[in-house]
Specification:
Layout lengths: L1 E3 H7 L5 H9 L3 E3 L2 E2 L5 E3 L5 E3 L2 E3 L9 E6 L31 E2 L8 E7 L2 H8 L7 E7 L5 H9 L1 E3 L2 E3 L3 E8 L2 E8 L6 H8 L4 E9 L2 E2 L8 E3 L2 H7 L2
Parallel strand pairs: 9-15
Antiparallel strand pairs: 1-4, 2-3, 2-5, 5-6, 7-9, 7-17, 8-9, 10-14, 10-15, 11-12, 13-14, 15-16
């Protein structure tokens, strides 16, 4: 069956479609020993797709597994390599799931913490992260110093930064924490470092950032570094 190469790699459980595009631009992917192009159609029955000179094959469709990790600060969202000693989110996957190849559904940067969804199903990852799904994500953001209501209004209207439009859907002021102002921010689009960029556009910096909720699924009392298996009911909450 013919598939676009990004979807092919996603279905193989190798990487997300967005990551596949990045790998193509970095010339890390070949089709029949020729550099791949974004959107190229491939057929696993006759085409040889390689990533970093290692062939990637379609695997038999498996049960979708989704996990929730309470990501600690200082941990990166990337697949581990022998060249990088950094601890990654995939180091926290417990048995009996540690043999599976997982993808993350919307990264959290090194200094952010909180809810991170991991899955072995590329189509599930695509559905959860694609803007058309219109899924709200809720963050608790501790600021380096207070900002005024005019800055909140600015973020709700939207901020143009680096050719991208950044926007919060809702902002609620929470009780202060250790003398720091804390905001609950609701986002839907999930641009790279979106919250940090908006806060910096208001002349401030993020002191702490924690993702608390995706859709109607909440982090609740999951300990830092702990993992929860998501039931079908939990998965339904992600898309509610």
């Amino acid at each position: 069956m013919l598939l676009r190469i990004q979807k092919f790699l996603s279905q193989c459980g190798y990487c997300s479609r967005r990551a596949a595009e990045k790998f193509i631009l970095e010339s890390r992917i070949t089709v029949n020993d020729k550099p791949a192009t974004i959107g190229q159609m491939v057929d696993d029955s006759r085409d040889m797709v390689k990533v970093d000179s290692i062939r990637v094959r379609q695997i038999q469709r498996k049960e979708t597994i989704a996990l929730m990790l309470n990501k600690p600060r200082g941990v990166v969202c990337t697949h581990p390599t022998k060249h990088s000693p950094e601890k990654t989110v995939f180091d926290y996957i417990p048995p009996p799931f540690s043999h599976e190849r997982f993808l993350y559904c919307g990264r959290l940067d090194r200094d952010s913490q909180g809810m991170l969804i991991l899955s072995n199903d590329g189509d599930f990852v695509q559905k959860l992260t694609h803007p058309s799904s219109n899924i709200s994500k809720i963050y608790h953001v501790t600021l380096s110093h207070p900002i005024g209501p005019e800055h909140g209004a600015k973020m709700l209207r939207g901020i143009e930064d680096g050719g991208e439009y950044l926007k919060a859907e809702k902002i609620i002021e929470l009780p202060t924490h250790n003398g720091h102002q804390v905001l609950e921010m609701h986002l839907k689009q999930g641009r790279r470092h979106e919250i940090r960029r908006m806060i910096e556009a208001c002349g401030c910096h993020v002191h702490r950032l924690k993702r608390m909720q995706i859709g109607q699924l909440k982090l609740k009392n999951l300990g830092i570094g702990h993992v929860k298996y998501l039931t079908p009911k939990d998965i339904d909450c992600l898309f509610a």
